[in-house]
Amino acid sequence: MASRSLDISQIRSDFPILHRENRSKPLAFLDNAATSQKPACVINAISDYYTHTNSNVHRGVYELAEDAENLYHQARKSIARRFNVTVDQVVFVRGATEGLNLVAQSFGPLVLEQGDAMILSEMEHHANIVPWQILSQKIGFEIRVCPTLPNGSLDREWISREFRKKNLKLIALTALSNTLGTVNPIEEIVAEARQYGIKTVIDGAQSVPHQKIDFQKLGCDFFAFSGHKIFGPMGIGVVLGSKDSLQNMPPYQGGGDMIDQVSFEGTTFAPVPQRFEAGTPNVAGAIGLGKAIDYFDQFEISDVVNHENNLYQIARTGLAEIAGFVEHGTTPHKAAVLSFTIEGIHPHDLATFLDAQGIAIRTGHHCCQPLMKVLGVEATARASFALYNTEEEANRLVDAVKKAVSILK
Ligand code: PLP
């Protein structure tokens, strides 16, 4: 049960890395949309696993292997609980990217035929574009792209119009844009898609640290995310799938651990989720992710969102005073992701200046090249906030950008 109050200085003491310096200045880590920092409980869980429990899972009869198996299973249970699914709906993968590739490669051909169409949006991360393009080249279906409105929201009416077309079979959509911060109305879109029998794949990479997702209630077919964006380790992620869809899907990769019987005459496959988890899994990663989910579960999501939004508002209000400041993504339905450009200053120059002040932000296309084209920029600067960031850091960002502008312009 969530009960821990959002005492930020106490929370910061959970994250050892926040006490290091960056270029000899206190680190202000404002690149949380790229990856989040890890609390000590996650770091310790990984270290403890390798110190005390390391063994391959699924195969050993000895105590050590049983202990490893138990911890691995416990992690799956933590994830299942958070997202309101059963453990057989939790497929471990390397991250959102692998998860979306799995869904495209294994599920895509079951629903998309030559002459069919699917929807993506202009604000998708490359991880939710390229796997579908690869599949489309093989099968010959059409990818239709939902436009972005000037405030960075989806053109909802466009989606409703497309849903009424006969050959539209699938929509793959980000729940939350890593560049614009836009929170897409996925509940509404999934419900509407279901009326037409259209399959739904949600890229939840950015959603998980800012939203509480009830997979059953949402009702989508798939939801993929990466552990490292939600205070877990890198190299581990999850695809949540509806039971019907997972049951009918062929394996994504072949190898050990995903089979029932193997012979040269033919092979039968393990039930889900093992069918999609070929090879030795990232056991330590899964355990770390389970711990991260348990850690995050202590907090009310509304407290987290309110805190992050407060920081975002401080930053955007301060930066808006700068002549030539443009925020990309201004819909009120957005998370604490602030993408911006300042006329006459290259985002990379700005980030380099901020780095010298101890402030870590991201610049570039954010793996959203099609969106950059829509926005008419090559790159943006992006500050993205997490629950451990402070008002002081948001103010430092504003002051440092103002200083940068006075020097660089
Ligand atoms: N989708 C979105 C919206 C993202 O922001 C990211 C990463 O930034 C991904 C997918 C891919 O995640 P990963 O690189 O962890 O697989």
Cross-sheet strand order for the largest sheet: 4-10-9-8-7-5-6
Count of DSSP H/I helices:
14
Which regions contain 5 or more consecutive residues with pLDDT less than 50?
Answer: none
CATH topology title of the largest domain:
Aspartate Aminotransferase, domain 2
Output the CATH homologous superfamily of the largest domain.
Type I PLP-dependent aspartate aminotransferase-like (Major domain)
Number of domains: 2
- Mind telling me which CATH architecture of the largest domain this is? 3-Layer(aba) Sandwich
Give the CATH class of the largest domain.
Answer: Alpha Beta
Quickly give the structural class: alpha/beta
Helix content: 40-55%
Bound molecules: pyridoxal-5'-phosphate
Q: CA-to-CA gap between the ends?
A: 51 Å
Question: Would you mind describing this structure in some detail?
Answer:
This protein is of the alpha/beta class. The chain has two domains: 132 residues, Aspartate Aminotransferase, domain 1, CATH 3.90.1150.10; 253 residues, 3-Layer(aba) Sandwich (Aspartate Aminotransferase, domain 2). Helix content is 40%, strand content 17%. The strands form five sheets. Strands 4-10-9-8-7-5-6 form a seven-stranded mixed sheet, with helices on both faces. A four-stranded antiparallel sheet has the order 13-14-17-16, with helices on one face. The protein has a two-stranded antiparallel ribbon with strand order 1-2. The protein starts with 7 loop residues before the first helix and ends with a helix. The site of pyridoxal-5'-phosphate has 12 residues, from helix 4.
